[in-house]
Amino acid sequence: MAERERSHTRPLGGVFVAHSQVLAASDVQRALTRMSHEVVERNGGVEDVVLVGLQTGGIPLATRMAETLNQIEGIALQIGSLDVAFYRDDIGLRPVLPEAVTNIPHDLTGKVVVLVDDVLFTGRTIRAALNALNDFGRARSIQLAVMIDRGHRELPIRPDYVGKNLPTRREEMVDVGDDGVWIGTLENR
Amino acid sequence: MTGPQHLLSVADLGKDGIAEVLRVAEAFAEVERRSVPKVPTLRGKVVATLFFEESTRTRLSFETAAKRLSADVLSLAVANSSVKKGESLRDTVETVEAMGIDALIIRHASAGAPHQVARWATRARVINAGDGGHEHPTQALLDCFTVRQVLAERKGAAPEELGIECFEGLRVLIVGDIRHSRVARSEVLAYSSLGAQVTLAAPGSLLPPSLEGWPVTVAEDFDAALADTDVVSLLRLQSERGSGSFVPSLREYTAGWGLTARRVALLSDDAIVTHPGPMMRGVEIASDVADLPRSVVVQQVTNGVAVRMAILFLLLGGEWPGHE
């Protein structure tokens, strides 16, 4: 059963035990390529697009999406990174700590921001991210790209670009890594 | 919540705790660089500053930090309070706590006062903002933060990439009124637990009566020690604690232990000069020395806000992973 282990640090703690693979690494790349084309199509190019990856799972995906967009459109987009710890709604209820320093390279006023994350679950992280982005200027629009939409939303939030819709049980966990997407559980060891 | 409930001494944190404060403070330093340097993190929390002793920067710094975290801030002006009518510290604290305050930031002339308050407090977190000649933990933390920032800048790296390894073997020289200085005590704890080598330089009368158990050495020759250090931490002569009677005269003190233009020339090119403020220009530091680029006094004040935001956040909202 423990085909793959990955330790998770805060805020969850414990070890991710993979049960089955959902997407291979090549599937992830194909999904990213399709999503990148959708970004170009929907925005008529990427002139005003700014990619912002959510710490930490969204950063590698945002980086790869920028590479793909560069291949398609020949424009090297700058990538921002956003840590939403200070905007969460569960501060004081569970351990909430920043994973990394936020880095938004420019004023977002008038830009089209594409938020990139690995897994969309309750929507609370995205809610916090929307609040945070507000402090960096008034974006013309904010769109959401996620590799996996696993359902169980607790807020009225929906993604604009999805790698794969994946029905899950609440207690399951989804892990997006370099070697593809795995479904499993988080176990304390 | 795990880890210390209060910040009374640098020793409450330990090496991992200090590393965590520096890491989180870096994230808040980014918040401070934004055009709107405010986050909603501690909305609904109430922070009270109780300063029984004067302060400019520490009080303003804590209040700025709390406001940037969206906490509400109450500040008790002791001079206009019932303390003047003879209300005891305990009653004052109970009164303030009864109003549902989440954090008490205390400065007091008596060593140990914040510890005592922490024993009385039932729900509020207590933060020591300087207690007599005992400790001033946030000052030592922001000094470490500033030193790391300077080291990172020179390497062209982000400070968080340096971790705390950059303190390993770093030579720190603490100069001046160590006997009366709470900053010195906190700095010795902070720097030495991060792996730095701490040396003290002071006239015999301004060294503590006993250094037993302190992880420090005492410099025999001040000028030679200056040539051989990475960080010089200058301290103010604490005349309000009677330092004046420990030195023959201010002029003599400056001649023997002040960082004069002549002594600055002895420093290595990379040496950093810190001072917790308020500076007594012309006493422990020559005025033009205070304005040299290697002197990071202004940077220390700026960083104080980010470091205090980190402390408030860790005590009121986050947790200390180093203490699980």
Outline:
By secondary structure, chain A is of the alpha/beta class.
Structure write-up:
The complex is a heterodimer of chains A (189) and B (324). With 189 residues, chain A is of the alpha/beta class. Chain A is 24% helix and 31% strand. Chain A has one domain: 3-Layer(aba) Sandwich (Rossmann fold), CATH 3.40.50. Chain A contains three helices and nine strands, in the order ββαβαββαββββ. In chain B, α1 packs across α5. The model of chain B has no long low-confidence stretch (mean pLDDT 92). Chain B has twelve helices and nine strands. In chain B, α4 links the parallel β3 and β4. Chain B is 39% helix and 14% strand. With 324 residues, chain B is α/β, with parallel strands linked by helices. At the A-B interface, loops of A face α1 of B.
> How many domains make up the 3D coordinates of chain B?
2
Question: In order across it, which strands form the biggest sheet of chain B?
Answer: 7-6-5-8-9
Which chains share the greatest interface? A-B, 21 and 24 residues
Total strands of chain A: 9
Give the class of chain A from helix and strand content and strand pairing.
alpha/beta
Known CATH architecture of chain A: 3-Layer(aba) Sandwich
CATH fold category name of chain A: Rossmann fold
Order of helices and strands of chain A: EEHEHEEHEEEE
The count of domains of chain A is 1
Q: Which stretches of chain A of 5+ consecutive residues score pLDDT under 50?
A: none
Note poorly predicted spans of chain B. none
CATH hierarchy class name of the largest domain in chain B: Alpha Beta
Mean pLDDT of chain A: 90
Oligomer designation: heterodimer
